[in-house]
Each structure stands twice: as structure tokens, then as C-alpha cells.
Fold:
Amino acid sequence: MAFTSNQLFKLSVKYLPAITAIITVFSLPVKAATFLVTERAVLGSNDQVDWGSLGKVFNPSAPDFSTFLPNSFLATSQGGLGLDINIAPTNKPQITPPFVFQTLPPPGIRTNFAQGDFILFGGIDPTGFQPLPPGAPDPRPQGNGGPFSISFAQPVFGAGAQIAVDISNLEVETFITAFDNTNNLLGSFSVLSTSSLALDNSAVFLGIRSDTPNISRLVFSSSKPQYGLAINQLSIIAVPEPTYTLAILAFGISGAVLKLRQRTWPNNY
Structure:
């Protein structure tokens, strides 16, 4: 049997609460869990930020201080996601502002990231490397250890980067912490790592992921904040573009209800 437009309108109004209830059940949030990820490939990212995209790269062979970054700045991922980066300022005037450099063999800057990586670095004291007597402790602050805080314009499922501290052959604890959009703590994890100048891609990867897209801010830090903190490319599990799955589901359910009712409703409905 066929239905007039008026009849279809009456049916949609009649069964709208049921359809809405079904959609609501499908969209109800579940309690989120966060997990530490220590391999970039395991994170399963679908977006990224390469710090070279900021367009300001410090060249140690031809220093240009205009390439220094403010402690707070904006960036955009390859997928168009906005990020707000805040690097905690230091109270030591001899330490430079943050900057991006490409890690390369001498005369470039060596690290234990992969050769050619663009590195976001908290800052360094260029006068802090004077020789000390053998075996003497070095109490001088040699760099800005952050923390680095990265806020996302839209919550994500997860993110991570390789991380290192500007000191060689010293075991350091590095941390990653996640917060939601109301600044509730979602999870905090740490690993032990040792930085070097080997250019061997051995810098530890620190990532965190959630089973719901509720991560609005990440914080990277270390147990040795007196030494400069560095991270490379930020990998992100961004929320995919909106789909019409629920709308299709709603129409499918309503269509199924109509077909079922067609067999039982009288012609004079």
C-alpha cells in the first residue's frame, strides 16, 4: 500500500521518540581508559605535526635569532587540526627562547633522534658548557626542560612523540600526561631513557591513547627540568571527518518500522 505525505508525517512524529532513543543508546559515552604507547607504529596515527612546518628552523652554522619561538604559539597539523603549544618559561635569562632545529652531523646539532628530524627544543644556555674539574657535579641549569603543553582544538584519541633531554649518558625519567577539555586528569605515564649524540633514532617514543576522543591536552616533561627538553614529530590519532552513520541508521530503522507496519495497518489509517 502507498502512504500520502500527511500519513508519513504522522508516522514519523509518532515513532520519533523511539528512533531518538535508539540513536541515543548508540551514542552514549562509555567510560574511557587511557594507555601508554611506546612505539609510534603501534599508536596508529592518522595525522601529524612536523615542527619544520612552522617555517622557523635555527641553523647553528648561521645563527638567526629571528627563528626563536615565543613560549606560546599556534600550529596546524597536516590534517588541519589546530594546536596551541605552551612551553613553560624559564627564569634564567641566559637560556634562549624555544626553537626548532634539524638534527644533523657536525656542524649540525647531534641528538639521538633520527638524522634529519625537526626537533622542538625548549631552549639552551650557550654559556653553560664550560669545563668542570673531573668528577665535579654540574649544578648549572643548562636548558629549559619545560614542561611542554600541547592543546588540541578538537579532542583526539591519542598522540605522542619521541622525547629526549639535552644531557648524554644520564638516565632520565620522561613523562606524558593527558587531560580532557575540563582539565580532568585522564592518565599519566613515564619511562626511563638515556639521551645521546648517536643520531641513531633511539630516542624513546612516549604516546598516550584513549578508547574515546577525549584528550584535549598533552604535557611532556622530565625528571631533570634543568636540562633542555626536546620532542620530534607529533603523531596524532585525530577524530575522522563527521559521517552520517547515525542519520542513515535512523532512516533505516524508520524504514523498517514502516515496512513492518504496512502489513498490519488498515487502509483507512
Observations:
- The chain has one domain: 33-124+141-237.
- The chain is about 15% helix and 30% strand.
- The CA atoms of residues 81 and 188 lie 23 Å apart.
